[in-house]
Structures are given as C-alpha cells and as structure tokens.
Write a structure and sequence with these properties.
This is Calreticulin. GO terms for molecular function: calcium ion binding; carbohydrate binding; unfolded protein binding. It holds the Pfam family Calreticulin. With about 425 residues, this protein is α+β, with helices and mostly antiparallel strands. It has a domain of about 250 residues: Sandwich (Jelly Rolls), CATH 2.60.120.200. About 25% of the residues lie in helices and about 30% in strands. The strands form five sheets. Strands 1, 3, 4, 6, 12, 13, 14 and 22 form an eight-stranded antiparallel beta sheet that branches. Strands 2, 5, 7, 8, 9, 10, 11 and 21 form an eight-stranded antiparallel beta sheet that branches. Strands 15-20 form a two-stranded antiparallel sheet. The longest helix is centred in the last third of the chain and has 90 residues. The chain is flat, with a radius of gyration of 42 Å.
C-alpha cells in the first residue's frame, strides 16, 4: 500500500510538472490549410505558402508560413480550445524571418477570444493581445506589446527594438499573474517591468489637489537682481561702429555713387545690455510643490494580466515587400518549457540556416572574384591587342615614310640627270 501511495504521489507530481500547451504549430506536416483559415472579409488578402525559405537547417522541419505577394493585407487565423490565464503565467512565442530584407510590414501576432468569427476577421476585430515586431522605414523598428483593456487597445510606453536582419529570430512574451511581464528576443530579455507602470491601464493613483494653489505671497525666485548694483558710466557703447581701417575706393565718384561711408563692423568695446548682478533672494520661500491627493477615479486591479477567453491566434498584418516566414507558434503556461523550445530552435534552425547562408555568401564571393579576375584579364588582353594594333600602325607609317623618302630621292636624281643633259647640249 505504501508503495502504491508513493507511486501515486509520483504520478501526481509529474502531472503537475507537465506544462499546459494551449497551442503549438511548428508546421511539421504539409497540411497547414486544414488548421489555418483565411478571412473572407476581403477578396484580395495576400496568400501564404509553406516553405523554409532560401536558407535552412532542415527543409521540412524549418518550413513556416511565408507571405508571397507585395503590398497586401494578410489575415489568417487558427483556433484552439478556449482557456483563461487567470492565476497562471501566459507565454506566447513564435519565430519571424524577414528573409526579403523587409522595408515596411508587420511581423506580429494577435490573440483573440474564442468568440471571433474567423471568416470575418478584419483589422478592427477585437483582440486580447497583439505582440511582435513591426518595421516601416528607418524610424519604426519596434516590438509591439498591446493589451486590450475595457475596450481600449493600450500600447506599451517603453521602446523595444526588434531585429531587422534576414535571419530567424524568436520572440517571447511572458505575462505573469503578479502583473509583471518580460519580452525576450532569442531567449535574451529585451524588456521587463510592471503592467500598471508600463501601460495606461489605470488612471494615476494621485492627482494635484484642485483646491490648492500657490499663496500669493509665495516667492519662488531663488536669485534676484541686486538692488544696490548700478550701471557703470562708461558702459554704454554702440554695438556697431564704422570700420576704422576702411578707405574710400580710388574710383569712387561722390556725384555718381553718393557720399561714401565706411562699412560697419562689430564694436570690440560693446558690452551688451547691462543687467544688475544676481544675489540670493532673502525672501526665497523655496520651490512650491502642488499638494497631491488620492485620485477618486483610481481603482486598483490586481488582474490586469488576466483574460477570460483565449481561443484564436492570428496573423493580421500589412506588408509592402513580402517574404516573411512565421513559424514555431507556441502558447503555454510554462516559461521554462518555452525557453527550452527556443534554445532548440536557436541551436538547430538558426545555426543551420546561418551555416547555409555563410556557405552561399562565400560561394558568391568566389564567383564575384572569378568574374572580376576574368574581366580584368579580358581588359588586359584588349589593351594588349590595342597596343599591338597601334604598333603595327606605327610600323606601317614608318614604311610609308621610307617609301616616300625613296621616291623623293629618285625624283631628285632624275631631275639632276635631266639638268645635266641640258647643260651638255
């Protein structure tokens, strides 16, 4: 009996230690369209395809959903058994690979209540949480963390910079039942804090007392002008004076050009506007601080983190240049389990795709070098041919000159002989 009891306790401990996996889709099978539904609220939503992209560790295991059409909205979602995160840790994790070197587009997910009509999902559909990277030009490269609270979508007040390269990166959001959170990128903490402090869930705990005001005789001037200080008699000097080194040009004509005046220059003796020196204010009352009172509109909420219903995860986004691959979707209550899953992705998918890309880049580098070398050799051959042609032309010109010289000599000899014959006659 004791042994059975111990075994029972062991089974219970193991069961309690097992993480709750609310949703997991790593696209290991090529049947994603059975699980992900495209919204029918528009007829021109962009299409996804299942692919590992150009670089990968395992082409089948690393496949994910890739956007395929430029300048399109995308709207797909997948449902799961509805759950509430009350009293539990909520972990949302997925990977994003912008292998198109994205210039403007979303890379985030939305978590919806199970009541969402997936076929009618739009950008205006109410969601619980929106999380993930968003890039648009050099000015927007951030991680969104948006919570819906009492009908309002609340943006995080801190800046979290996202990754903007072409590699796979894993984004993790951890929301804890003590109203704290963590955002991790590739298992490294990118931001952490409290929900109440970093979002405007609640109004301020305190407000300025509307009944209080600064007393009329309150003097908050720390320094005042010295009433005994007087301006020196020689203080007043003009700011600008005629240039003493200037001379009237020799070609200046007073009748034509008018009366000549020297140009004005800064006066080195100018001291500016005189002000009395400052002294400590003997009547200084200190800095007046407006009294604060409890805000009557503030009501504490120790369940800011909690939602009654999660039931759908969706990709509702816009992309100017398509090519982003989404993969490794996970929702659980166990941060350690998510961390372990992320480590596996980093050590296999990420490491393997980097190795493949580095090999590709090296091959491309060698090809460029060979092409540059070939181009240089062809240029050298062309230059050599041009030099040879020029040499041949020079030799032909020299031959022609020799022939012209010989003909000239023969002509001169003939003239001399003819002249000599005439003399003999």
């Amino acid at each position: 009996k004791m042994l059975k009891f111990v075994l029972l306790l062991s089974f219970v401990a193991v069961a309690l230690a097992e993480p709750s996996i609310y949703f997991k889709d790593y696209f290991a099978k090529n049947d994603w369209e059975k699980r992900w539904l495209t919204s029918e609220s528009k007829d021109d939503f962009g299409k996804f395809k299942l692919t590992a992209g150009k670089f990968y560790n395992d082409e089948e295991q690393d496949a994910g959903l890739q956007t395929t059409q430029d300048a399109r909205f995308y709207a797909v979602s997948s449902s799961f058994d509805s759950f509430s995160n009350k009293g539990k840790t909520l972990v949302v994790q997925f990977s994003v690979k912008h292998e198109q070197n994205i210039d403007c587009g979303g890379g985030y997910v939305k978590l919806f209540p199970g009541t969402l009509n997936q076929k009618k999902m739009t950008g205006d559909s109410e969601y619980n949480i929106m999380f993930g990277p968003d890039i648009c030009g050099p000015g927007t490269k951030k991680v969104h963390v948006i919570f819906q609270y009492k009908g309002k979508n609340l943006l995080i007040k801190k800046d979290i910079r996202c990754k903007d390269d072409e590699a796979t990166h894993v984004y993790t959001l951890i929301v804890k039942p003590d109203n704290t959170y963590e955002v991790l990128i590739d298992n490294t903490v990118a931001q952490t804090g409290g929900l109440e402090a970093d979002w405007d869930f609640l109004p301020a705990k305190e407000i300025k007392d509307p009944e209080a005001s600064k007393p009329e005789d309150w003097d908050d001037r720390e320094k005042i002008p010295d009433p005994t200080d007087t301006k020196p008699e020689d203080w007043e000097k003009p700011e600008h004076i005629a240039d003493p080194d200037a001379k009237k040009p020799e070609d200046w004509d007073d009748e034509m050009d008018g009366e000549w005046e020297a140009p004005m220059v800064d006066n080195p003796e100018y001291k500016g506007e005189w002000e009395p020196k400052q002294i400590d204010n003997p009547d200084y009352s200190g800095k007046w601080v407006h009294p604060m009172i409890p805000n009557p509109e503030y009501v504490a909420d120790d369940e800011l983190y909690a939602y009654d219903d999660f039931g759908v995860i969706g990709l509702d986004l816009w992309q100017v240049k398509s090519g982003t691959i989404f993969d490794n979707f996970l929702m659980t209550d166990d941060a350690d389990f998510a961390k372990s899953e992320c480590e596996n992705i980093l050590s296999t998918t990420v490491k393997g795709e980097k190795k493949m890309k580095d090999a590709h880049d090296e091959e491309e580098r060698k090809k460029r070098e060979e092409e540059e070398k070939k181009t240089a050799e062809e240029t050298d051959e062309e230059d050599a041919d041009a030099d040879a042609d020029e040499l041949d032309e020079d030799e032909e010109d020299a031959t022609d000159m020799d022939e012209d010289s010989t003909e000239a000599d023969e002509t001169e000899d003939a003239i001399e002989q003819e002249s000599a014959g005439k003399d003999e006659l």
